[in-house]
Amino acid sequence: MSMTLEMKYFVLKPKAKDGHDMFARASQDGMIAYSERIRTIAPLFADQLLFWAEKEKTTQDRMFREG
Protein backbone atom coordinates (compact mmCIF):
# COMPACT_ATOMS: atom_id res chain seq x y z
CA MET A 1 0.00 0.00 0.00
CA SER A 2 1.42 3.40 -0.93
CA MET A 3 0.61 6.67 0.73
CA THR A 4 0.60 9.99 -1.07
CA LEU A 5 1.08 13.41 0.44
CA GLU A 6 -1.31 16.13 -0.63
CA MET A 7 -1.38 19.57 0.93
CA LYS A 8 -2.81 22.96 0.19
CA TYR A 9 -0.08 24.74 2.15
CA PHE A 10 3.49 23.96 3.03
CA VAL A 11 5.04 25.87 5.92
CA LEU A 12 8.73 26.67 5.94
CA LYS A 13 10.43 27.32 9.28
CA PRO A 14 13.85 28.83 8.58
CA LYS A 15 14.83 29.44 12.23
CA ALA A 16 17.28 26.73 13.29
CA LYS A 17 17.28 25.02 16.67
CA ASP A 18 21.00 24.31 16.33
CA GLY A 19 23.79 24.31 13.77
CA HIS A 20 22.79 20.86 12.48
CA ASP A 21 19.08 21.55 11.88
CA MET A 22 18.62 20.27 8.31
CA PHE A 23 14.89 21.07 8.29
CA ALA A 24 15.74 24.75 8.86
CA ARG A 25 18.46 24.63 6.21
CA ALA A 26 16.06 23.11 3.69
CA SER A 27 13.54 25.84 4.53
CA GLN A 28 16.16 28.54 4.04
CA ASP A 29 17.14 27.09 0.67
CA GLY A 30 13.49 26.79 -0.34
CA MET A 31 12.82 30.41 0.54
CA ILE A 32 15.81 31.52 -1.52
CA ALA A 33 14.60 29.50 -4.52
CA TYR A 34 11.08 30.90 -4.14
CA SER A 35 12.49 34.42 -3.94
CA GLU A 36 14.43 33.92 -7.17
CA ARG A 37 11.35 32.54 -8.96
CA ILE A 38 9.00 35.42 -8.03
CA ARG A 39 11.55 38.25 -8.37
CA THR A 40 10.18 39.52 -11.71
CA ILE A 41 6.60 39.87 -10.48
CA ALA A 42 7.16 40.77 -6.81
CA PRO A 43 10.66 42.22 -6.35
CA LEU A 44 10.09 43.77 -2.92
CA PHE A 45 8.59 40.58 -1.49
CA ALA A 46 11.41 38.58 -3.09
CA ASP A 47 13.98 40.85 -1.43
CA GLN A 48 12.28 40.49 1.95
CA LEU A 49 12.23 36.69 1.69
CA LEU A 50 15.85 36.60 0.56
CA PHE A 51 16.95 38.86 3.43
CA TRP A 52 15.10 36.72 5.98
CA ALA A 53 16.48 33.43 4.62
CA GLU A 54 20.04 34.75 4.44
CA LYS A 55 19.81 36.13 8.00
CA GLU A 56 18.66 32.73 9.34
CA LYS A 57 21.34 30.96 7.31
CA THR A 58 24.04 33.20 8.79
CA THR A 59 22.72 32.60 12.31
CA GLN A 60 22.71 28.83 11.77
CA ASP A 61 26.23 28.90 10.32
CA ARG A 62 27.40 30.76 13.44
CA MET A 63 25.72 28.16 15.69
CA PHE A 64 27.45 25.41 13.72
CA ARG A 65 30.89 27.02 14.10
CA GLU A 66 30.39 27.64 17.82
CA GLY A 67 29.51 24.02 18.28
Describe the structure.
- The protein starts with 21 loop residues before the first helix and ends with a helix.
- The protein is built from 2 helices and no strands.
- The longest helix has 24 residues, at 43-66.
- With 67 residues, the chain is mainly α.
- α1 packs antiparallel against α2.
- The protein has a domain at 22-66.
Largest sheet: none
**Fraction in helix:** 55-70%
Uncertain regions spanning at least 5 consecutive residues: none
Shape: flat
Average pLDDT, rounded to a whole number, is: 92
Q: H/E order of the elements? A: HH
Distance between the termini: 42 Å
Which strand-content bin applies to the residues?
Answer: under 5%
Number of helical regions: 2
The secondary structure category is mainly alpha
Radius of gyration using CA atoms only: 14 Å
Number of strands: 0
Question: What does the secondary structure layout of this molecule look like, with pairings?
Answer:
Elements: H1 22-38, H2 43-66
Helix pairs in contact: 1-2
Can you describe this structure in just a few lines?
Helices cover 61% and strands 0% of the residues. The protein contains two helices and no strands.
